[in-house]
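# nightly structure sweep
# worker-07 picked up a monomer target from the shared queue
# config: single-sequence mode, recycle default, output format = structure tokens
# input follows
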Amino acid sequence: MKSSILTKTISIGLLLVAFSFSGGAYSADDPSIKGDLRANVQQSMEKFIEVQTIDEHLYVYDAIEGKLLQLKLSALHSGIVKKGDFYVSCADFIDQHGNKVDIDFMVRKSNNSLITTQALVHSINGKKRKYHLEKL
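# output follows
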């Protein structure tokens, strides 16, 4: 009896830890972006990450800190929003110092396809960065 209570307590604790690090379920999302459009935005972002990844690391320049981040993918977010002419979706990474880095990916229509053009640092360890795509 004690061992099953301990097992349940540990399981609940692990779930709480997983939710606290998962960001994907709670990221911003526009429910009007659906179907093929949603799938294609996500595929474009995933392809960008795949092509730009070298030896399991994505390299992104952090213009605010003036340094190059060496990032390892942790989790893709399912949320997508529209900012100006871009669709934005994000993913969680861990940098070379163990910091949790949220990267936003800018995706834009070009003819009949969606192209991910850039990766931007959105937050480090939960501290958000501001950028504005709506005013282009």
